[in-house]
Amino acid sequence: MAIEGAEIVKAAAFIGAGLAMGLGAIGPGVGQGMVAAKACEAIGKNPKEAGLLTRTMLVGQAVSESTGIYSLVVALLLLFVVY
Amino acid sequence: MEFEVETVIKIAAYGGGGIAMGLGAIGAAVGQGYTAAKANLAASRNPKISGDIFKNMLVGQAIAESASIFALVITILLLFVRPPSPGLLDAAAYLGAGLCMGFGAIGSGIGAGNPGGEACFGLSRQPEAGSQLTTNMLIGSAVCQTPAIFAMVVALMLIFIKFGGAALTPTWAALVGAGLSTGLAAIGSGYGGGLAAGASCEGIARTPQAVTSVTTLMLIGQAVAQTPSIFGLLISFILMFKSFPESSLLMTPMALLGAGLCMGFGGIGPGIGNGMAAEGAVRWVARNVEHTSDLMRIMLVGQAVSQSTAIYSMVISLVLIFVV
Description:
The complex is a heterodimer. Chain A is an all-alpha fold.
């Protein structure tokens, strides 16, 4: 069967979207887990500051989330906009 | 050059079998090595109870072995089982089964080494807590095996369910994608569950009276760490059981393959991250048992945030399957 150029581009965009989101999810997942582990350690050491530590953890995780959101945006662009 | 259908099936089955056993051997070997290393350390620290440590090491290693035994079973099935009415889809299913079991055994094998090692080390520290340590090790490493069991279930379904009636062109990618989704997603959950179980054995050795809180928190943490592999299983089931219309376009199979890869890789990070969060919480419950509820709350909040990228991956996978 003859495959046209546009067809290959679409196929590549779909595989690319999957890889972008899939691989992009690894880093934030591990990073946010590290933050949570250290927050648990900090609360274990100093339970009085639980509120402050929870806030700090969430801000740190939100920053670490950003690359996951970039991946999501890129995946959605590849799926719906680029081709 | 044209191949006969039987030849293609053989190529896929032998290739898949090699992948399943080769990748499947990684995890258990690393995990058992870790257990043995810790057991040596423990025996040098407290040579008087080296017999108990040795026994505990062997039990821990036997559980870590199960992931690679699953891989061996799937490999043997792939080498010898042949479909009654061969079709090209069987080849895709065999390859998917091999990929699924091979990747799926890595995390559980490495993970189950952690509780084994920490329990051996804990024995040298606190020999009188031996029975609690062994029990906790058994529970923790058994839960670590769940992702490998998910992978085995999907691999068995791919081998034995007949997909003969489905349209060849998009369905081959769906079957390979189904294998990749569960297999890859199991890596993170298996390893993450092991981190939590290891920390709980360490904690019990440190504070034997905190055993109830430690084991409870370990189980909750491990359960949350399992979710990415359950997402992977869900995507696999959708890919296996949804019927896809025949399509001559290249993009349809690539979208389904992309969906499997997306959920598979996307499950690795959150699984490990959730395990790390549980590890931190469990470790500190043993040191500060009166703040168990604070630690559990922060663990669950942290895990929920770490879960978000797995959910993004699932959304993209579902879009790839149902929308585009």
